[in-house]
Amino acid sequence: MRLSRYFMPILKENPKEAEIVSHRLMLRAGMIRQQSQGIYSWLPLGKRVLDKVNAIIRDEQNRAGAIELSMPTLQSAELWQESGRYDAYGKEMLRIKDRQDRPMLYGPTNEEMVTDIFRSSVKSYKDLPLNLYHIQLKFRDEIRPRFGTMRSREFMMKDAYSFDLTREGAEHSYNKMFAAYLRTFDRLGLRAIPMRADTGPIGGKLSHEFIILADTGESEVFCHKDFVDFDIPGAHTDFDSVEGLQAIFDKWTSLYAATSEMHDEAAFNAVPEGDRLSARGIEVGHIFYFGTKYSEPMGAKVQGPDGKEHFVHMGSYGIGPTRLVPAIIEASHDDNGIIWPASVAPFDIVVINMKAGDQACDDTCELIYAALTKAGRDVLYDDTDDRAGTKFATADLIGVPVQIIAGPRAVANGEVEVKDRKTGARETMTIEAAINRFVA
Ligand code: 5CA
């Protein structure tokens, strides 16, 4: 991508409305734009990051055996009347009428709709277990939307829904998502700690929130500090192994960890003082087992091996991609801007032409840009005629992991400079060496 042809509206000044660093940096880097309170456009740079986050989420959902579909944002109120949540959900639900005066709503979550899809076609235990997910916009008319896309009214959610014949089966489904979440957040460069949580309007008894520790987090959390160093399940984890996944769940729930709603002061005080971590956190995922809470009122049942009909046991599993992007920034930035983990960086490399219009600089940059793009790398080429200082500031602000800098003096020697955004380390090398380093 040539920056001269790209759309990346950088802000020079710090936006006054932004209270936390991620919101400030997302606005300054031209990643998002507020359209009305708590409702955002994702501009091209932000969209690239969001897509990469979603690709990792999708990959890990698929690995765990979940199957992707796509459900609409607008839902009929009738479904919610069946489950009894239409009235219970309260003012957070955006209620709409269509031209025939039929009550509709902008979905805040999808338990009812997915249960309807399930009951219309699954009739036998032989089709279970089943886990269906989508990555879709939601709307919740939050009282206090704030911190940019961290807590917005319209936001994206990956929501998965599992169906099992028995409680034991449902617990295995829960454990699959539990392990998939540990892997997902790790690949996003985050350390998320599962904590016992309140179930709120989704309901059920068993629930964990996945929390990232951050000073700007909205939740107050309490946990054992050893969680920070626990091993993440590997890529070859067998998601069909009931014992294997139970062992992962048991390990990750063996020490104290709870959000303030579930906090048990006495249990926390039993943790040796030096091991206690009391901090603030950002909830990036939340999983629930709620048994037959929706399947019973909505009549979602299958025939079991005993020939009888059974209401299915369900769970739901949410991750917030549009919250994850600012959460990653909260965890990884410095005074100059964002420092993206390579897995979600909007571009892998930025090529900085320090003197656009200078033949040798232009030729060198074109050569590098073409070679790396051909090798499948996402390259941003800063070919604008801005001052070098402005270009460096922009490159640091948008947080691309590698900068390849071509200035007239180095280029005259057949060399460029390679800068690591995270460490700030700079290395001068031949143009060929720079290309070779990043084509592999
Ligand atoms: N149906 C269940 C799970 S699929 C559910 O709705 N769970 S939830 O309410 O906990 O939301 C799941 C995730 O969505 C949260 O962990 C959070 O990451 C994200 N999320 C929730 N509300 C917002 C919001 N207002 N802004 C941004 N992200 C949000």
What percentage of the residues does DSSP assign to strands (E)? Answer: 25-35%
Tally of separate domains = 2
Shape: globular
Mean pLDDT: 97
Radius of gyration (CA) equals 24 Å
Give the distinct bound molecules: 5'-O-(N-(L-cysteinyl)-sulfamoyl)adenosine
In total, how many beta strands?
23
List keywords for this structure.
440 residues; BirA Bifunctional Protein, domain 2; Rossmann fold; 2 domains; nine-stranded mixed sheet; five-stranded mixed sheet; 14 helices; 23 strands; binds 5'-O-(N-(L-cysteinyl)-sulfamoyl)adenosine
Structure, briefly:
With 440 residues, the protein is an alpha+beta fold. The protein has helices at 21-28, 44-63, 77-83, 85-88, 111-121, 167-187, 242-252, 265-269, 295-298, 321-331, 359-374, 388-398, 408-412, 431-439, and strands at 32-36, 39-42, 67-68, 74-76, 94-97, 103-106, 130-139, 154-164, 192-196, 206-213, 219-224, 257-259, 276-291, 301-303, 309-311, 313-319, 333-334, 337-338, 349-353, 379-382, 402-406, 415-420, 426-430. 32% of the residues lie in helices and 28% in strands.
